[in-house]
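Usage example:
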Amino acid sequence: MSSFLDYLTLGIVLGSMYAIFAIGYTLVYGVLQLINFAHSEVFMTGGFVGMIVLTEFAPSRPHGFPSVLWMVIGCLSGMVGGAAIAWCLERVAYRPLRKAHAPRLVFLLSAVGASFFLYNLCGKLFGRTPIQVPSLYTNSVLFHWPGTSVEVRVNQVVVVGAAVVMMIALDRVVNRTKLGSGIRAVAQDAETAGLMGVDIDRVVSRTFVIGGLLGGAAGFLYGYAVSGQVVFTMGFVPGIKAFAAAVLGGIGNVRGAMLGGLLLGVIESFTVPLLGSEWIDVAAFVILVLVLMFRPTGLLGERLGRSA
Amino acid sequence: MSESEPPLLELDRLEVSYGAIRALRGISVAVRRGEVVALLGANGAGKTTTLRTVSGLLKPRSGGVLFRGERIDGVPAHHVVALGIAHAPEGRRVFPVMSVLENLRMGAYRFRGGARREDLDRVFGLFPRLAERRTQLAGTLSGGEQQMLAIGRALMARPELLLLDEPSMGLAPMVVRQIFEIVREINQQGTTVLLVEQNAAQALRLATRGYVLETGAVVMEETAEVLLRDDRVRAAYLGEGAA
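Running the assembly step on the lines above writes:
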Protein backbone atom coordinates (compact mmCIF):
# COMPACT_ATOMS: atom_id res chain seq x y z
CA MET A 1 0.00 0.00 0.00
CA SER A 2 2.67 2.47 0.94
CA SER A 3 4.70 1.80 -2.19
CA PHE A 4 1.52 2.22 -4.25
CA LEU A 5 1.11 5.69 -2.78
CA ASP A 6 4.77 6.42 -3.35
CA TYR A 7 4.50 5.71 -7.05
CA LEU A 8 1.17 7.48 -7.28
CA THR A 9 2.75 10.60 -5.78
CA LEU A 10 5.64 10.48 -8.23
CA GLY A 11 3.23 9.89 -11.09
CA ILE A 12 1.06 12.85 -10.18
CA VAL A 13 4.10 15.11 -9.94
CA LEU A 14 5.43 14.00 -13.31
CA GLY A 15 1.94 14.00 -14.80
CA SER A 16 1.06 17.53 -13.74
CA MET A 17 4.25 18.73 -15.38
CA TYR A 18 3.39 16.85 -18.57
CA ALA A 19 -0.10 18.31 -18.40
CA ILE A 20 0.94 21.96 -18.49
CA PHE A 21 3.57 21.14 -21.10
CA ALA A 22 1.01 19.28 -23.25
CA ILE A 23 -1.40 22.22 -23.24
CA GLY A 24 0.99 24.17 -25.46
CA TYR A 25 0.89 21.45 -28.11
CA THR A 26 -2.85 21.14 -27.95
CA LEU A 27 -3.65 24.86 -28.06
CA VAL A 28 -1.50 25.46 -31.10
CA TYR A 29 -2.90 22.38 -32.79
CA GLY A 30 -6.38 23.70 -32.03
CA VAL A 31 -5.92 27.01 -33.83
CA LEU A 32 -3.55 25.95 -36.63
CA GLN A 33 -3.91 22.14 -36.95
CA LEU A 34 -0.16 22.14 -36.61
CA ILE A 35 2.09 20.20 -34.26
CA ASN A 36 4.57 22.70 -32.92
CA PHE A 37 7.51 20.34 -32.53
CA ALA A 38 9.68 23.25 -31.41
CA HIS A 39 7.58 23.47 -28.24
CA SER A 40 10.17 21.25 -26.53
CA GLU A 41 12.61 24.16 -26.92
CA VAL A 42 10.11 26.46 -25.22
CA PHE A 43 10.34 24.07 -22.28
CA MET A 44 14.12 24.08 -22.38
CA THR A 45 14.15 27.87 -22.52
CA GLY A 46 11.96 28.01 -19.43
CA GLY A 47 14.42 25.77 -17.62
CA PHE A 48 17.46 27.81 -18.65
CA VAL A 49 15.97 31.23 -17.99
CA GLY A 50 14.85 30.10 -14.54
CA MET A 51 18.30 28.65 -13.84
CA ILE A 52 20.05 31.85 -14.97
CA VAL A 53 17.81 34.11 -12.92
CA LEU A 54 18.28 32.01 -9.80
CA THR A 55 22.05 31.68 -10.31
CA GLU A 56 22.64 35.33 -11.05
CA PHE A 57 20.20 37.11 -8.79
CA ALA A 58 18.92 34.91 -5.99
CA PRO A 59 20.75 35.00 -2.65
CA SER A 60 22.74 31.83 -2.04
CA ARG A 61 20.76 30.48 0.91
CA PRO A 62 17.44 32.26 1.21
CA HIS A 63 15.23 31.44 4.17
CA GLY A 64 11.52 31.64 4.78
CA PHE A 65 9.64 34.13 2.72
CA PRO A 66 12.53 34.99 0.32
CA SER A 67 12.72 31.30 -0.63
CA VAL A 68 9.12 31.34 -1.72
CA LEU A 69 9.54 34.69 -3.42
CA TRP A 70 12.54 33.50 -5.44
CA MET A 71 10.73 30.33 -6.38
CA VAL A 72 7.91 32.44 -7.79
CA ILE A 73 10.37 34.76 -9.54
CA GLY A 74 12.21 31.78 -11.05
CA CYS A 75 8.99 30.29 -12.31
CA LEU A 76 7.71 33.59 -13.69
CA SER A 77 10.97 34.26 -15.49
CA GLY A 78 10.86 30.76 -16.98
CA MET A 79 7.34 31.53 -18.15
CA VAL A 80 8.35 34.84 -19.68
CA GLY A 81 11.32 33.20 -21.42
CA GLY A 82 9.13 30.40 -22.75
CA ALA A 83 6.49 32.88 -23.95
CA ALA A 84 9.11 35.02 -25.68
CA ILE A 85 10.53 32.04 -27.56
CA ALA A 86 7.06 30.79 -28.47
CA TRP A 87 6.13 34.25 -29.78
CA CYS A 88 9.31 34.37 -31.88
CA LEU A 89 8.68 30.86 -33.20
CA GLU A 90 5.28 31.85 -34.44
CA ARG A 91 6.64 34.98 -36.10
CA VAL A 92 9.72 33.45 -37.65
CA ALA A 93 8.98 29.78 -38.26
CA TYR A 94 5.26 29.69 -38.95
CA ARG A 95 3.67 33.00 -39.90
CA PRO A 96 5.59 33.48 -43.16
CA LEU A 97 4.54 29.96 -44.17
CA ARG A 98 0.91 30.65 -43.32
CA LYS A 99 0.96 33.80 -45.41
CA ALA A 100 2.40 31.84 -48.31
CA HIS A 101 -0.21 29.06 -47.86
CA ALA A 102 2.57 26.50 -47.60
CA PRO A 103 1.69 22.80 -47.48
CA ARG A 104 1.53 21.00 -44.12
CA LEU A 105 4.82 19.20 -44.52
CA VAL A 106 6.69 22.48 -44.80
CA PHE A 107 5.40 23.55 -41.39
CA LEU A 108 6.66 20.32 -39.92
CA LEU A 109 10.12 20.81 -41.41
CA SER A 110 10.19 24.38 -40.20
CA ALA A 111 9.26 23.20 -36.72
CA VAL A 112 11.97 20.57 -36.63
CA GLY A 113 14.50 23.05 -38.03
CA ALA A 114 13.61 25.67 -35.44
CA SER A 115 13.93 23.06 -32.73
CA PHE A 116 17.42 21.96 -33.87
CA PHE A 117 18.52 25.56 -34.17
CA LEU A 118 17.33 26.51 -30.71
CA TYR A 119 18.77 23.61 -28.77
CA ASN A 120 22.08 23.74 -30.57
CA LEU A 121 22.23 27.47 -29.96
CA CYS A 122 21.63 26.79 -26.31
CA GLY A 123 24.32 24.10 -26.26
CA LYS A 124 26.71 26.54 -27.88
CA LEU A 125 25.93 29.33 -25.40
CA PHE A 126 25.81 27.34 -22.19
CA GLY A 127 27.87 24.27 -22.89
CA ARG A 128 26.76 20.73 -23.42
CA THR A 129 26.97 19.47 -19.89
CA PRO A 130 24.15 19.71 -17.37
CA ILE A 131 24.08 22.81 -15.17
CA GLN A 132 22.82 22.60 -11.60
CA VAL A 133 19.87 24.79 -10.72
CA PRO A 134 20.59 26.43 -7.35
CA SER A 135 18.23 25.28 -4.68
CA LEU A 136 16.24 27.82 -2.74
CA TYR A 137 15.25 25.72 0.24
CA THR A 138 15.68 22.27 1.68
CA ASN A 139 13.50 19.83 -0.14
CA SER A 140 12.26 18.40 3.13
CA VAL A 141 9.28 16.18 3.86
CA LEU A 142 6.17 18.32 4.06
CA PHE A 143 3.67 15.68 5.17
CA HIS A 144 2.90 11.98 5.06
CA TRP A 145 -0.09 10.46 3.33
CA PRO A 146 -2.60 10.01 6.18
CA GLY A 147 -2.07 6.76 8.02
CA THR A 148 1.08 5.75 6.11
CA SER A 149 4.76 6.49 6.08
CA VAL A 150 4.68 7.72 2.48
CA GLU A 151 6.44 11.04 2.25
CA VAL A 152 5.44 14.04 0.23
CA ARG A 153 8.21 16.58 -0.25
CA VAL A 154 8.10 20.33 -0.72
CA ASN A 155 9.15 20.20 -4.37
CA GLN A 156 6.43 17.76 -5.21
CA VAL A 157 3.80 20.00 -3.69
CA VAL A 158 5.27 22.99 -5.50
CA VAL A 159 5.09 21.29 -8.90
CA VAL A 160 1.57 20.00 -8.46
CA GLY A 161 0.37 23.24 -6.87
CA ALA A 162 1.83 25.41 -9.61
CA ALA A 163 0.40 23.14 -12.30
CA VAL A 164 -3.07 23.17 -10.75
CA VAL A 165 -3.08 26.96 -10.46
CA MET A 166 -2.01 27.30 -14.09
CA MET A 167 -4.54 24.80 -15.36
CA ILE A 168 -7.38 26.55 -13.54
CA ALA A 169 -6.20 29.92 -14.85
CA LEU A 170 -5.96 28.59 -18.39
CA ASP A 171 -9.38 26.98 -18.24
CA ARG A 172 -10.81 30.33 -17.17
CA VAL A 173 -9.03 32.20 -19.93
CA VAL A 174 -10.21 29.79 -22.60
CA ASN A 175 -13.80 29.62 -21.39
CA ARG A 176 -14.53 32.97 -19.85
CA THR A 177 -12.58 35.66 -21.68
CA LYS A 178 -12.90 37.34 -25.01
CA LEU A 179 -9.46 36.07 -26.05
CA GLY A 180 -10.64 32.58 -25.09
CA SER A 181 -13.75 32.79 -27.25
CA GLY A 182 -11.57 34.11 -30.07
CA ILE A 183 -9.27 31.10 -29.67
CA ARG A 184 -12.17 28.66 -29.68
CA ALA A 185 -13.78 30.36 -32.67
CA VAL A 186 -10.55 30.24 -34.67
CA ALA A 187 -10.13 26.59 -33.72
CA GLN A 188 -13.62 25.72 -34.94
CA ASP A 189 -13.73 27.85 -38.10
CA ALA A 190 -10.98 30.40 -38.60
CA GLU A 191 -12.48 32.09 -41.65
CA THR A 192 -15.84 32.62 -40.01
CA ALA A 193 -14.10 33.87 -36.88
CA GLY A 194 -12.53 36.52 -39.12
CA LEU A 195 -15.98 37.51 -40.36
CA MET A 196 -16.97 38.10 -36.74
CA GLY A 197 -14.13 40.54 -36.29
CA VAL A 198 -11.55 38.19 -34.78
CA ASP A 199 -8.03 39.17 -35.80
CA ILE A 200 -6.77 35.69 -36.56
CA ASP A 201 -3.07 36.60 -36.56
CA ARG A 202 -3.38 38.17 -33.15
CA VAL A 203 -5.26 35.20 -31.73
CA VAL A 204 -2.69 32.78 -33.13
CA SER A 205 0.17 34.83 -31.70
CA ARG A 206 -1.45 34.98 -28.28
CA THR A 207 -2.18 31.28 -28.38
CA PHE A 208 1.54 30.63 -28.83
CA VAL A 209 2.28 33.00 -25.96
CA ILE A 210 -0.14 31.21 -23.64
CA GLY A 211 1.34 27.85 -24.61
CA GLY A 212 4.79 29.38 -24.07
CA LEU A 213 3.92 30.60 -20.58
CA LEU A 214 2.83 27.11 -19.54
CA GLY A 215 5.65 25.35 -21.40
CA GLY A 216 8.23 27.68 -19.83
CA ALA A 217 6.78 27.02 -16.39
CA ALA A 218 6.92 23.28 -17.03
CA GLY A 219 10.57 23.61 -18.04
CA PHE A 220 11.43 25.58 -14.95
CA LEU A 221 9.61 23.18 -12.65
CA TYR A 222 11.29 20.22 -14.32
CA GLY A 223 14.74 21.78 -14.06
CA TYR A 224 14.29 23.00 -10.52
CA ALA A 225 12.17 20.39 -8.83
CA VAL A 226 12.32 17.19 -10.84
CA SER A 227 15.84 16.82 -12.28
CA GLY A 228 17.60 19.62 -10.40
CA GLN A 229 19.58 20.53 -13.49
CA VAL A 230 19.18 21.91 -16.99
CA VAL A 231 20.84 20.84 -20.21
CA PHE A 232 20.32 21.82 -23.83
CA THR A 233 18.67 18.50 -24.74
CA MET A 234 16.30 18.51 -21.77
CA GLY A 235 13.24 19.30 -23.87
CA PHE A 236 13.40 16.41 -26.26
CA VAL A 237 12.10 13.38 -24.37
CA PRO A 238 9.63 15.25 -22.16
CA GLY A 239 8.47 17.05 -25.31
CA ILE A 240 7.62 13.80 -27.04
CA LYS A 241 5.90 12.62 -23.88
CA ALA A 242 3.87 15.80 -23.58
CA PHE A 243 2.91 15.55 -27.22
CA ALA A 244 1.85 11.95 -26.61
CA ALA A 245 -0.15 13.14 -23.60
CA ALA A 246 -1.93 15.71 -25.78
CA VAL A 247 -2.80 13.02 -28.33
CA LEU A 248 -3.86 10.63 -25.56
CA GLY A 249 -6.35 13.16 -24.21
CA GLY A 250 -7.50 14.26 -27.68
CA ILE A 251 -5.32 16.71 -29.54
CA GLY A 252 -6.82 20.19 -29.62
CA ASN A 253 -8.71 19.54 -26.42
CA VAL A 254 -7.38 21.47 -23.42
CA ARG A 255 -8.96 19.33 -20.73
CA GLY A 256 -7.85 16.30 -22.70
CA ALA A 257 -4.24 17.48 -22.49
CA MET A 258 -4.56 17.86 -18.73
CA LEU A 259 -6.04 14.39 -18.35
CA GLY A 260 -3.60 12.85 -20.82
CA GLY A 261 -0.62 14.40 -19.02
CA LEU A 262 -1.70 13.17 -15.62
CA LEU A 263 -2.46 9.67 -16.91
CA LEU A 264 0.83 9.42 -18.72
CA GLY A 265 2.75 10.50 -15.62
CA VAL A 266 0.98 7.95 -13.45
CA ILE A 267 1.39 5.17 -16.04
CA GLU A 268 5.10 5.86 -16.31
CA SER A 269 5.49 5.89 -12.60
CA PHE A 270 3.77 2.53 -12.12
CA THR A 271 5.80 0.98 -14.88
CA VAL A 272 8.85 1.11 -12.62
CA PRO A 273 7.61 -1.36 -9.99
CA LEU A 274 5.64 -3.47 -12.46
CA LEU A 275 8.12 -3.85 -15.32
CA GLY A 276 11.28 -2.00 -14.37
CA SER A 277 12.44 1.50 -15.13
CA GLU A 278 13.87 0.59 -18.54
CA TRP A 279 10.27 0.01 -19.72
CA ILE A 280 9.02 3.51 -18.90
CA ASP A 281 9.05 4.89 -22.44
CA VAL A 282 7.78 1.65 -23.93
CA ALA A 283 4.84 1.49 -21.56
CA ALA A 284 3.90 5.12 -22.18
CA PHE A 285 3.76 4.66 -25.91
CA VAL A 286 2.10 1.24 -25.83
CA ILE A 287 -0.73 2.78 -23.82
CA LEU A 288 -0.90 5.61 -26.33
CA VAL A 289 -1.16 3.18 -29.24
CA LEU A 290 -3.79 1.08 -27.46
CA VAL A 291 -5.94 4.09 -26.64
CA LEU A 292 -5.73 5.37 -30.19
CA MET A 293 -6.66 1.96 -31.60
CA PHE A 294 -9.94 2.06 -29.73
CA ARG A 295 -10.49 5.80 -29.53
CA PRO A 296 -8.67 7.39 -32.48
CA THR A 297 -9.58 10.89 -31.38
CA GLY A 298 -8.14 10.40 -27.89
CA LEU A 299 -9.88 10.00 -24.55
CA LEU A 300 -11.90 13.23 -24.63
CA GLY A 301 -12.03 13.74 -28.39
CA GLU A 302 -10.42 16.36 -30.58
CA ARG A 303 -12.07 19.72 -30.25
CA LEU A 304 -10.91 22.88 -28.73
CA GLY A 305 -14.48 24.06 -28.40
CA ARG A 306 -15.71 21.20 -26.34
CA SER A 307 -12.79 21.21 -24.20
CA ALA A 308 -12.18 24.08 -23.76
CA MET B 1 -33.73 59.04 -51.18
CA SER B 2 -31.81 61.75 -52.99
CA GLU B 3 -30.19 60.97 -56.29
CA SER B 4 -26.89 62.50 -55.25
CA GLU B 5 -26.28 60.15 -52.35
CA PRO B 6 -23.75 57.44 -53.30
CA PRO B 7 -24.95 53.83 -53.08
CA LEU B 8 -24.32 52.18 -49.73
CA LEU B 9 -22.31 49.53 -51.54
CA GLU B 10 -20.85 49.79 -54.97
CA LEU B 11 -18.85 47.19 -56.86
CA ASP B 12 -16.95 48.83 -59.65
CA ARG B 13 -15.78 46.57 -62.49
CA LEU B 14 -14.70 43.98 -59.96
CA GLU B 15 -12.36 41.22 -61.12
CA VAL B 16 -11.43 38.31 -58.88
CA SER B 17 -9.31 35.28 -59.75
CA TYR B 18 -8.49 31.99 -58.12
CA GLY B 19 -5.08 31.40 -59.57
CA ALA B 20 -5.58 31.22 -63.31
CA ILE B 21 -9.36 30.97 -63.05
CA ARG B 22 -11.22 34.24 -63.41
CA ALA B 23 -14.19 34.00 -61.10
CA LEU B 24 -15.48 37.55 -61.56
CA ARG B 25 -14.94 39.29 -64.86
CA GLY B 26 -15.53 42.94 -64.15
CA ILE B 27 -18.92 43.05 -62.46
CA SER B 28 -20.54 46.30 -61.38
CA VAL B 29 -23.27 46.21 -58.76
CA ALA B 30 -24.88 48.94 -56.68
CA VAL B 31 -26.86 48.51 -53.48
CA ARG B 32 -28.71 51.56 -52.19
CA ARG B 33 -29.56 52.17 -48.59
CA GLY B 34 -32.72 50.34 -47.56
CA GLU B 35 -32.82 47.97 -50.50
CA VAL B 36 -32.84 44.21 -50.71
CA VAL B 37 -30.74 43.33 -53.73
CA ALA B 38 -30.63 39.76 -55.03
CA LEU B 39 -27.74 38.20 -56.91
CA LEU B 40 -29.08 35.33 -58.97
CA GLY B 41 -27.34 32.76 -61.05
CA ALA B 42 -26.36 29.15 -61.39
CA ASN B 43 -23.62 27.37 -59.47
CA GLY B 44 -20.24 28.83 -60.31
CA ALA B 45 -21.64 32.11 -61.63
CA GLY B 46 -19.64 34.05 -59.05
CA LYS B 47 -22.32 34.95 -56.51
CA THR B 48 -20.50 33.67 -53.45
CA THR B 49 -17.21 35.06 -54.71
CA THR B 50 -18.85 38.47 -54.89
CA LEU B 51 -19.96 38.35 -51.26
CA ARG B 52 -16.60 37.03 -50.12
CA THR B 53 -14.86 39.89 -51.85
CA VAL B 54 -17.14 42.44 -50.22
CA SER B 55 -16.47 41.05 -46.75
CA GLY B 56 -12.71 41.04 -47.26
CA LEU B 57 -12.13 37.29 -47.49
CA LEU B 58 -10.92 37.70 -51.06
CA LYS B 59 -8.92 40.49 -52.61
CA PRO B 60 -9.93 41.69 -56.06
CA ARG B 61 -7.40 41.58 -58.83
CA SER B 62 -8.74 44.84 -60.15
CA GLY B 63 -11.74 47.09 -59.69
CA GLY B 64 -13.03 48.40 -56.42
CA VAL B 65 -15.44 47.80 -53.57
CA LEU B 66 -16.89 51.04 -52.23
CA PHE B 67 -18.84 51.20 -49.00
CA ARG B 68 -20.50 54.55 -48.24
CA GLY B 69 -18.40 55.91 -51.09
CA GLU B 70 -15.06 54.75 -49.69
CA ARG B 71 -12.78 52.04 -51.02
CA ILE B 72 -12.73 48.98 -48.77
CA ASP B 73 -11.19 46.34 -51.03
CA GLY B 74 -8.03 45.08 -49.42
CA VAL B 75 -9.34 45.80 -45.92
CA PRO B 76 -9.04 42.52 -43.96
CA ALA B 77 -12.28 40.75 -43.04
CA HIS B 78 -12.00 41.44 -39.32
CA HIS B 79 -11.99 45.18 -40.03
CA VAL B 80 -14.75 45.07 -42.63
CA VAL B 81 -17.25 43.87 -40.05
CA ALA B 82 -16.43 46.89 -37.91
CA LEU B 83 -17.34 49.17 -40.82
CA GLY B 84 -20.88 47.85 -40.69
CA ILE B 85 -20.96 44.87 -43.07
CA ALA B 86 -21.94 41.51 -41.62
CA HIS B 87 -21.76 38.30 -43.61
CA ALA B 88 -23.90 35.22 -42.98
CA PRO B 89 -21.80 32.84 -45.08
CA GLU B 90 -22.75 29.99 -47.36
CA GLY B 91 -23.36 26.79 -45.47
CA ARG B 92 -24.26 28.79 -42.30
CA ARG B 93 -20.89 28.12 -40.66
CA VAL B 94 -22.08 28.34 -37.09
CA PHE B 95 -19.46 27.45 -34.48
CA PRO B 96 -20.54 23.85 -33.84
CA VAL B 97 -19.20 23.35 -30.33
CA MET B 98 -20.34 26.67 -28.99
CA SER B 99 -23.82 27.19 -27.60
CA VAL B 100 -26.40 29.31 -29.41
CA LEU B 101 -25.72 32.12 -26.97
CA GLU B 102 -21.94 31.88 -27.45
CA ASN B 103 -22.41 32.00 -31.21
CA LEU B 104 -24.47 35.16 -30.87
CA ARG B 105 -21.82 36.65 -28.60
CA MET B 106 -19.23 35.88 -31.27
CA GLY B 107 -21.30 38.01 -33.63
CA ALA B 108 -20.71 40.95 -31.31
CA TYR B 109 -16.98 40.23 -31.02
CA ARG B 110 -16.14 43.52 -32.69
CA PHE B 111 -17.58 45.50 -29.79
CA ARG B 112 -15.26 46.21 -26.92
CA GLY B 113 -17.92 45.63 -24.31
CA GLY B 114 -19.22 42.41 -25.90
CA ALA B 115 -22.81 41.60 -26.78
CA ARG B 116 -25.46 44.11 -25.81
CA ARG B 117 -28.60 43.04 -24.02
CA GLU B 118 -30.88 44.84 -26.47
CA ASP B 119 -29.22 43.19 -29.48
CA LEU B 120 -29.67 39.75 -27.95
CA ASP B 121 -33.29 40.62 -27.16
CA ARG B 122 -33.83 41.74 -30.73
CA VAL B 123 -32.40 38.51 -32.18
CA PHE B 124 -34.40 36.39 -29.75
CA GLY B 125 -37.48 38.44 -30.71
CA LEU B 126 -36.93 37.73 -34.40
CA PHE B 127 -36.06 34.07 -33.79
CA PRO B 128 -37.91 32.75 -30.72
CA ARG B 129 -36.55 29.27 -31.52
CA LEU B 130 -33.04 30.48 -30.75
CA ALA B 131 -34.18 31.78 -27.38
CA GLU B 132 -35.58 28.34 -26.53
CA ARG B 133 -32.31 26.71 -27.48
CA ARG B 134 -29.86 29.26 -26.18
CA THR B 135 -27.76 26.78 -24.20
CA GLN B 136 -27.80 24.07 -26.88
CA LEU B 137 -24.65 23.48 -28.93
CA ALA B 138 -25.04 24.98 -32.38
CA GLY B 139 -23.84 21.79 -34.06
CA THR B 140 -26.89 19.95 -32.73
CA LEU B 141 -29.43 22.39 -34.21
CA SER B 142 -31.50 21.60 -37.31
CA GLY B 143 -30.51 23.19 -40.61
CA GLY B 144 -33.22 25.83 -40.35
CA GLU B 145 -32.23 26.70 -36.82
CA GLN B 146 -28.59 26.94 -37.83
CA GLN B 147 -29.57 29.34 -40.60
CA MET B 148 -31.50 31.44 -38.11
CA LEU B 149 -28.47 31.42 -35.86
CA ALA B 150 -26.17 32.46 -38.69
CA ILE B 151 -28.44 35.41 -39.50
CA GLY B 152 -28.91 36.29 -35.85
CA ARG B 153 -25.17 36.14 -35.27
CA ALA B 154 -24.61 38.53 -38.19
CA LEU B 155 -27.18 40.93 -36.74
CA MET B 156 -25.30 41.03 -33.43
CA ALA B 157 -22.63 43.08 -35.21
CA ARG B 158 -25.30 45.78 -35.84
CA PRO B 159 -24.64 45.85 -39.56
CA GLU B 160 -25.78 48.53 -41.92
CA LEU B 161 -25.42 46.00 -44.72
CA LEU B 162 -26.20 42.33 -44.30
CA LEU B 163 -24.70 39.83 -46.77
CA LEU B 164 -26.78 36.67 -46.95
CA ASP B 165 -25.40 33.72 -48.88
CA GLU B 166 -27.96 31.06 -49.83
CA PRO B 167 -30.12 31.16 -46.74
CA SER B 168 -32.50 28.64 -48.34
CA MET B 169 -29.85 26.00 -48.98
CA GLY B 170 -31.06 22.53 -48.02
CA LEU B 171 -34.12 23.74 -46.14
CA ALA B 172 -37.77 22.69 -46.41
CA PRO B 173 -40.00 25.15 -48.29
CA MET B 174 -41.90 26.13 -45.17
CA VAL B 175 -38.71 26.93 -43.30
CA VAL B 176 -37.45 28.91 -46.28
CA ARG B 177 -40.62 31.03 -46.32
CA GLN B 178 -40.30 31.62 -42.62
CA ILE B 179 -36.68 32.74 -42.92
CA PHE B 180 -37.41 35.03 -45.86
CA GLU B 181 -40.26 36.58 -43.87
CA ILE B 182 -37.79 37.39 -41.10
CA VAL B 183 -35.27 38.79 -43.57
CA ARG B 184 -38.03 41.11 -44.80
CA GLU B 185 -38.63 42.20 -41.23
CA ILE B 186 -34.91 42.82 -40.70
CA ASN B 187 -34.87 44.95 -43.84
CA GLN B 188 -37.92 46.90 -42.69
CA GLN B 189 -36.12 47.60 -39.42
CA GLY B 190 -33.50 49.42 -41.47
CA THR B 191 -30.83 46.93 -42.52
CA THR B 192 -29.86 46.88 -46.19
CA VAL B 193 -29.55 43.35 -47.58
CA LEU B 194 -27.45 41.87 -50.36
CA LEU B 195 -28.81 38.40 -50.95
CA VAL B 196 -27.30 35.55 -52.94
CA GLU B 197 -29.81 32.87 -53.91
CA GLN B 198 -30.35 29.95 -56.20
CA ASN B 199 -34.00 29.98 -55.16
CA ALA B 200 -34.78 32.88 -57.48
CA ALA B 201 -38.53 32.81 -56.93
CA GLN B 202 -38.21 33.35 -53.18
CA ALA B 203 -35.43 35.87 -53.59
CA LEU B 204 -37.29 38.02 -56.09
CA ARG B 205 -40.43 38.09 -53.99
CA LEU B 206 -38.35 39.75 -51.29
CA ALA B 207 -35.91 41.83 -53.33
CA THR B 208 -36.23 45.36 -54.62
CA ARG B 209 -33.84 44.70 -57.48
CA GLY B 210 -31.83 41.84 -58.82
CA TYR B 211 -28.74 41.05 -60.84
CA VAL B 212 -28.33 37.90 -62.88
CA LEU B 213 -24.78 36.56 -63.02
CA GLU B 214 -23.44 34.12 -65.57
CA THR B 215 -19.84 32.89 -65.50
CA GLY B 216 -18.56 35.86 -63.59
CA ALA B 217 -20.39 38.63 -65.42
CA VAL B 218 -23.64 40.54 -64.92
CA VAL B 219 -26.02 39.66 -67.75
CA MET B 220 -29.15 41.39 -66.41
CA GLU B 221 -29.92 44.12 -63.95
CA GLU B 222 -33.58 44.88 -63.31
CA THR B 223 -36.19 45.52 -60.68
CA ALA B 224 -37.54 42.37 -59.07
CA GLU B 225 -40.94 42.65 -60.77
CA VAL B 226 -39.36 42.85 -64.21
CA LEU B 227 -37.09 39.88 -63.50
CA LEU B 228 -39.99 37.81 -62.19
CA ARG B 229 -41.82 38.32 -65.48
CA ASP B 230 -38.79 37.93 -67.73
CA ASP B 231 -38.96 34.83 -69.92
CA ARG B 232 -35.26 34.06 -69.75
CA VAL B 233 -35.21 34.31 -65.96
CA ARG B 234 -38.36 32.22 -65.70
CA ALA B 235 -36.86 29.55 -67.92
CA ALA B 236 -33.42 29.45 -66.41
CA TYR B 237 -33.98 30.15 -62.71
CA LEU B 238 -37.63 29.71 -61.90
CA GLY B 239 -37.94 26.27 -63.47
CA GLU B 240 -40.76 27.30 -65.74
CA GLY B 241 -41.41 27.28 -69.46
CA ALA B 242 -38.79 25.82 -71.73
CA ALA B 243 -36.35 24.80 -69.01
